[in-house]
Amino acid sequence: MSTRYDDTTRTPQEYEVLTGGGAEAAQVAKRGISRRQMLRRATGVSLGIVGAMAGLGSLMMLYPNLEGQFGAPITLRNKAIYIPAEQKEMLLDQKGMFYESSAKSYIMHLKSGGTTQFLQSGVALDNSMEAQDWLKDGDTFWLALYQVCVHLGCKVPFRDDCNSFKCPCHGSHYNIDGEYIDGPAPRSLDRFTMTFDSSGNVTVDTGKLNQHVERPDVGTRVLRLPYVPVCSAQ
Ligand code: FES
Q1: 169 lines ligand 1 (CB under 6 A)
Q2: Among 172, 190, 215, which is best to mutate for testing ligand 1, by the most ligand atoms less than 8 A from CB?
Q3: Domains in the chain and their CATH numbers?
Q4: Residues 146/209, Cβ–Cβ less than 8 Å
Q5: DSSP one-letter string for 47-69
Q6: 145, 98, 95: which is closest to 116 by C-alpha?
Q7: b/e string for 161-171 if b means 16 or more Cβ within 10 A?
Q8: Ligand 1 touching residue 170 (CB < 6 A)
Q9: Average pLDDT for the chain
Q10: pLDDT class for 61, splitting at 50, 70, 90?
Q11: Using a 6 Å cutoff on CB, does residue 148 contact ligand 1?
């Protein structure tokens, strides 16, 4: 005589003794779910998790965490490190002009008076400075200039001998504040927004690029032209 077990009338413990499938299997059997169905469901859940992880990975690639990296605010050194200089006295990485590779920027710290000559004054100067992301701090002035030439993208060096920026590719020439002087560039150098934190550290927001500083004319130029208006190619 064959024995037929009625799963629905046994407790999980009884089922375990009779089938060796364990209490979990008994519950599954009680719900009418076969082992194959259970495996299918487990596979489905696993595939779902893998899919979700892949989706998350794609999202992270699309929106990478740029904290502290180029493309986000970058905290540089304390402002006391950036010794200010007058327009004529700037020396790269010594005074007035400092290169910061992490921000791909030149930090200009300009001392007013002496050889520094602003060509505008009052509201006109304030408006130009605000539009061009100048930062005023007491009687000195700051700018964070993006290193890339706005003509075709070469890296532009600051030239101590020319007291200005000169692009080695096609000769675009920019004043110490990035204002266009001559050459094929369509506008002045681009700038990043700059702030100081409560400890006086300089932060450059490399996620906020001002690409709207036009070629100045005599009425809109902020600083006088450098002492060496003709800067030969190196
Ligand atoms: S890339 Fe600088 S002048 Fe052409």
Answers
A1: yes
A2: 172
A3: 7-62 (no CATH), 73-210 (2.102.10.10)
A4: yes
A5: HHHHHHHHHHHHHHHHS---TTS
A6: 95
A7: ebbbbbbeeeb
A8: yes
A9: 83
A10: low
A11: no
CB 184 less than 6 A from any atom of ligand 1: yes
Average pLDDT value for residue range 190-217: 96
Length of the chain: 234
Look at residue 224 in the predicted model and tell me its pLDDT.
94
Residue 2's SS3 state is: coil
Amino acid at 83: I
Closest residue CA from atom 1 of ligand 1: 152
Q: What is the pLDDT of residues 105-152, one digit of tens each?
A: 999 999 999 999 999 999 999 999 999 999 999 999 999 999 999 999
- CA distances 65 to 52, 55, 206, Å, are 19, 16, 14
In 3D, which of 209, 188, 190, 198 has the Cα closest to residue 73?
209
CA of 162 to the centre of ligand 1 (A): 17
Nearest to 51 by CA among 59, 39, 64: 59
